[in-house]
Specification:
850 residues, seven-stranded mixed beta sheet, 27 helices, elongated
C-alpha cells in the first residue's frame, strides 16, 4: 500500500532550466531489422518487460510448416552437412598419405594443401551450417559474409580436387605395388583359409588413399554445385513479404530447451500486429525482437573501434535499464502502487530514455548528410564546432555525442553537466541536461482493465506538445519554427508506461517555492509566446493525473518543502518513491492517438487484444480534426500520398478487427492557416470579378491567368509582417518602424505581383477583414469589395513606375538596419539563444543550479 505521507520529490536545484527546442518532430523510421551488433535499445527492454503473450507449443499442436523459402534453406543446409561429412574422407586419407610420403616428395605439396583445406573447412563450416534464415525480414538472401565465404570455399575445393586428381594420376604406376623386401605377411582371411601375401609399398598406399580422397573431393564439388543451385532459387524465384518474414523468424532447431535458448527466450515473445505494408493490410503475429530491431544505424561510420565501443556501452546501459524496468513491472503485476528506486537507478532510466530518443532515425538522419544541409545559425555553429574538434562530417559529431552521453556518470551534485558540455556538441548536450532538469519521470497504468496502450515501431521517444510551422517560400517545404514538448512516452507493457512530464505543466500537489514557481511561470509564458498562436499552445494531456516522485530527503511542513537533513541536500543514497498512477480511458485514448498520429512512416502496429486495438483505431480515425487545436491528423505538403494511404490502411484494419470507421483529416499547407481544406482564396474571387484589378495583375505578372501560388505567397508575407509586429512588441517605435521598413525592402526581391497582392491583404488586415484564426492561421472574413482597389493599382497600371522610388525609396541591401536583423532572427530562427539569455537572468535568483 502506498505511503501517502511520504515526502515528495523536490530536487530544488532541478526545478529550473532552459526551454527546449529540437529541430524536428515526426520521425521517419526505416523498415526495422535486427542484428546482434546493432540491435536497438528498445527490443531487449520490451522483451524483458512487456506483457505481450509469448507463444508456447501446446500438446498435439502441429509445428509451423516451412514455406518455400525455408525449404530452400533446409535443402541448402543438407548439402552443407553432406560436405562437412565428406571433409573427413579427404582429411584422413590425405593426412595418412602425407605421413608416409618420404619416398614420394613430388606429392607432398598437393597432399599438404588438401589436408589444410579439409581441416580449415571442418572448423569453418560450422557457422555456415548454423545459418538457416534470410539476412533480414526484407532481404531473402543470406548475409554477405555467407556468400563471400561460400565463393572462396568453392574455389578452394576446385583447387583441392585438382590436386587430388594430379596425385592420383602421378601415383597410378604404384597402384597395388608390393613390398617383397620384408617377406610375406598374413593377409585377411578368405573363407576359412588363411592366406599369406606381400604388403603394399608406401607409394601404393598413397595411390589408394589418393583415389579415395579424389572421389570424396569430386562428390564435395557436386554438393557445392547443389548448394549454389539452391541459392540461385532465392534470386530466381519471387516470394511474398510474408514468406520472407516467416523464413526469417522460422526456427527449425528448437527441440531442446538449451541454456542458450533459455537465455534468448525473452526474444521469442509474440504479439499480434497490424501490418500496414505490402502485400496488404493484415492481422499478423510478430516477434518483439524482430519488430523493434534497428539495423545499420552506424552503417557509414568510419571508425569501427568507436562504434564497437559505443555498442558495448549501449549494451551495458540496456542491461541495467532492463533490470530496473523489469523490477517496476514486477511490482505492478503484484498489485503494488508504489515503486522505490535509488537515485542511481532513476538516473539510469533518465539516461536510457534520452539515449533511445537521441538514437531515433530522424535524429540520425539529420546528421547523416552534409554540413550544407544545415541552415543559418545552426550551420555556422556546427561548422565552428567541427573545425575546433577536428570532425570531418556531421555524423561524426552525432556519434561522439552518443559516446559522451554514455560515458558520462550522472552524479548527485551535477558536476557531470559541465563535463558533458565540454565533451559533446553543446546544443545537444544542453538537450540532455534539459531532459533531466525540466522533465520528471512518472509511471501510469490504465484504470480500466479493458484498456491498453498500443505499441508502434517508433513509439519510444514520441512526444506531445504544440508545434508551429511555416512554408519555406524558396523550397516549398513545411518547416517547424517552434515546438514544445509537454510529455514524452515510453511504453513498458500494454498496461504500463513511462511518461516524462514537463515542469512547465503544473502537477497535483505541486509545492514549489514562490521563487521557483515564479521562474517556471515566466518560463512557461515565454515558451508559449514563441508559438504562432499562444492561446492554443496548450497540452493535449494537461490534466493527466501524475505528480513528482516522493523522496527520502525532504518532507512537507505547512504546505512547504522542508529538508530532513542539514548541509548538502543531494546524496547518492537518496531514494525516490514513484506511484503508479491509474489513468482514465480518455487519457489512454489520447496517448494512443498521439502515437498513431506519428506512426504513418512505419509498417506495423502491435496490440494485445483485438478489441482494444479496434477501439484505439476507431477513436483516432473518428476524431474530428476541428475538435482539437493540438495538430492531430494533419496532412502537410509532401506527405499527402503516404499520409492518405496510412489513413486508408487504418480504415481497412478497423474492418479486419470487426469495426467500422472513416478517417476525418485535414490538409495544412504549412502556413499559419492550417485550414480545414485547401479552400479558395477570397482575394482570387474578388480580383477575378474586377476587370481593372485583373488587368493590373496581368500587366505586373506577365501571366494570362491568376496564379494561386502568388496568392499563397502573399499570405506568407502577411504572416511574417504580423510576426514582426508581435516579436518587436515592447521595443521603441523607431525600432519597430525600421524593422517593418527592412521587411518591405526584403519583399522587393519577390515578384512584383506578389508584393501587389500583399498590399491589398495588408489593407484588409488593417480594416478587420483578415485575422489570425485557428493556430494563428491567416483567416479571412467576407472581404468587402470596396476595399479591393488602392494606390498600388494606380502605380501598377504603369509598370515602369513600379519602382522603389514610387513607394518612398528604400536602402540598399547592405544598409539593412540592425532592427531588421534582430526581427528577422526572431522570426526565422529558434528560440534557443533567447531562452538561454532568459535562463541566465533567471538563474540569478536564489535557486541552486543542481
Amino acid at each position: 500500500m502506498a505511503d501517502t505521507d511520504a515526502p515528495k520529490e523536490h530536487d530544488v536545484e532541478k526545478d529550473a532550466g532552459t526551454t527546449r527546442l529540437l529541430p524536428t518532430t515526426a520521425a521517419e523510421d526505416r523498415e526495422p531489422r535486427e542484428t546482434a551488433a546493432t540491435e536497438s535499445l528498445v527490443p531487449r527492454v520490451v522483451r524483458m518487460t512487456t506483457g505481450f503473450a509469448r507463444k508456447k507449443p501446446r500438446k498435439g499442436k502441429k509445428k509451423p510448416q516451412p514455406n518455400a523459402v525455408t525449404r530452400i534453406y533446409s535443402v541448402k543446409l543438407k548439402y552443407l552437412l553432406a560436405q562437412w561429412i565428406l571433409y573427413f574422407f579427404v582429411l584422413g586419407p590425405s593426412a595418412r598419405s602425407l605421413a608416409i610420403a618420404s619416398k614420394a616428395q613430388f606429392v607432398v605439396p598437393k597432399l599438404a594443401y588438401a589436408v589444410a583445406c579439409a581441416a580449415v573447412h571442418i572448423v569453418g563450416a560450422i557457422p555456415f551450417m548454423s545459418h538457416d534464415n534470410p539476412a533480414s525480414p526484407t532481404n531473402i538472401s543470406p548475409p554477405k559474409w555467407y556468400l563471400i565465404g561460400s565463393a572462396v570455399s568453392s574455389l578452394a575445393w576446385v583447387a583441392a580436387t585438382a590436386c587430388m586428381i594430379v596425385v592420383t594420376v602421378e601415383t597410378m604406376p604404384f597402384n597395388r605395388e608390393e613390398d617383397k623386401s620384408h617377406g610375406m605377411h598374413d593377409c585377411p582371411r578368405k573363407g576359412n583359409q588363411n592366406k599369406r601375401c606381400y604388403p603394399l609399398t608406401d607409394n601404393a598406399m598413397i595411390a589408394f588413399d589418393a583415389q579415395m580422397s579424389m572421389t570424396a573431393a569430386i562428390i564435395i564439388l557436386l554438393t557445392i554445385v547443389g548448394h549454389w543451385y539452391q541459392l540461385s532459387k532465392l534470386w530466381r524465384s519471387k516470394f511474398t513479404a510474408d514468406e520472407i518474414m516467416e523464413a526469417y523468424e522460422y526456427e527449425p532447431h528448437s527441440k531442446k530447451n538449451t541454456p542458450k535458448q533459455r537465455k534468448n527466450a525473452k526474444g521469442n515473445m509474440q504479439a499480434k500486429g497490424i501490418r500496414l505494408s505490402d502485400p496488404g493490410v493484415a492481422i499478423v503475429s510478430r516477434k518483439i525482437a524482430r519488430t523493434f530491431g534497428v539495423q545499420d544505424l552506424y552503417a557509414d561510420a568510419t571508425n569501427s573501434t568507436d562504434t564497437e565501443h559505443i555498442e558495448r556501452l549501449l549494451g551495458t546501459l540496456e542491461e541495467r535499464a532492463s533490470k530496473i524496468i523489469a523490477q517496476v513491472r514486477s511490482r505492478h503485476l503484484e498489485g503494488n502502487k508504489l515503486v522505490t528506486l535509488k537515485r542511481a537507478e532513476k538516473d539510469v532510466l533518465r539516461k536510457f530514455l534520452f539515449i533511445m530518443k537521441y538514437r531515433r532515425p530522424d535524429v540520425r538522419d539529420k546528421y547523416a548528410g552534409s554540413i550544407e544541409d544545415f541552415d543559418g545559425i545552426e550551420k555556422e555553429a556546427l561548422q565552428k564546432y567541427m573545425q575546433k574538434r577536428g570532425f570531418q562530417r556531421p555524423l561524426d559529431v552525432w556519434l561522439n555525442n552518443i559516446k559522451a552521453m554514455l560515458e558520462i556518470k550522472i552524479d548527485a551534485r551535477c558536476k557531470w553537466e559541465k563535463e558533458l558540455l565540454r565533451k559533446a556538441y553543446p546544443p545537444d548536450a544542453g538537450e540532455f541536461i534539459v531532459h533531466t532538469r525540466l522533465f520528471y519521470l512518472s509511471f501510469c497504468a490504465p484504470s480500466n482493465q479493458d484498456d491498453e496502450f498500443i505499441m508502434t515501431q517508433n513509439s519510444y521517444g514520441i512526444h506531445e506538445g504544440p508545434k508551429s510551422t511555416f512554408s519555406d517560400p524558396h523550397s516549398g517545404k513545411v518547416l517547424v519554427s517552434f515546438y514544445t514538448e509537454y510529455h514524452t512516452f515510453a511504453h513498458i507493457a500494454p498496461n504500463l508506461t513511462m511518461i516524462l512530464r514537463s515542469f512547465l505543466l503544473r502537477s497535483p500537489g505541486d509545492s514549489a517555492s514562490e521563487d521557483i514557481a515564479e521562474i517556471l511561470k515566466t518560463l512557461q509564458d515565454f515558451n508559449i509566446s514563441m508559438h504562432d498562436f499562444p492561446e492554443r499552445a496548450t497540452s493535449f494531456l494537461e490534466d493527466l493525473p501524475v505528480a513528482k516522485a516522493q523522496n527520502s530527503y525532504s518532507t512537507m511542513k505547512n504546505g512547504r518543502v522542508a529538508l530532513l537533513r542539514p548541509g548538502s541536500v543531494l546524496k547518492p543514497q537518496d531514494k525516490f518513491h514513484f506511484r503508479i498512477f491509474p489513468i482514465s480511458t480518455d487519457h489512454v485514448n489520447k496517448i494512443n492517438m498521439i502515437l498513431l498520429d506519428e506512426a504513418w512512416p512505419t509498417s506495423l502496429i502491435l496490440f494485445k487484444t483485438e478489441r482494444s486495438a479496434r477501439n484505439a483505431l476507431e477513436n483516432y480515425l473518428n476524431l474530428d480534426p476541428l475538435s482539437t487545436s493540438h495538430g492531430l491528423k494533419l496532412i502537410f505538403p509532401g506527405t499527402e500520398t503516404l499520409r492518405e494511404a496510412y489513413f486508408r490502411n487504418l480504415q481497412t484494419a478497423v474492418k479486419l478487427l470487426g469495426g467500422n470507421a472513416v478517417a476525418a483529416y485535414r490538409f495544412d499547407d504549412g502556413t499559419l492557416e492550417g485550414v480545414l481544406t485547401r479552400d479558395a482564396d477570397q482575394l482570387i474571387d474578388l480580383i477575378s470579378q474586377n476587370d481593372d484589378t485583373l488587368q493590373a495583375y496581368y500587366k505586373l505578372s506577365n501571366k494570362d491567368a491568376l496564379d494561386r501560388e502568388d496568392f499563397r505567397q502573399s499570405r506568407e508575407m502577411l504572416k511574417r509582417r504580423i510576426k514582426i509586429d508581435t516579436n518587436t512588441k515592447g521595443r521603441d517605435e523607431d525600432f519597430q518602424n525600421r524593422a517593418r521598413e527592412d521587411l518591405i525592402h526584403e519583399y522587393w526581391k519577390l515578384p512584383p505581383q506578389q508584393f501587389w497582392i500583399y498590399l491589398k491583404r495588408h489593407r484588409f488586415l488593417m480594416n478587420g477583414g483578415t485575422i489570425l484564426g485557428l493556430r494563428s492561421d491567416v483567416h479571412d472574413y467576407p472581404l468587402p469589395a470596396e476595399l479591393l482597389s488602392g494606390p498600388e493599382d494606380v502605380i501598377a497600371k504603369k509598370s515602369s513606375a513600379w519602382t522603389r522610388k514610387a513607394f518612398g525609396g528604400y536602402r540598399k541591401k547592405r544598409e539593412l538596419s540592425s532592427a531588421s536583423k534582430g526581427a528577422s532572427a526572431i522570426v526565422a530562427s529558434s528560440q534557443l539563444n533567447a531562452s538561454r539569455k532568459f535562463v541566465k537572468s533567471a538563474s540569478k535568483k536564489t535557486v541552486q543550479r543542481c
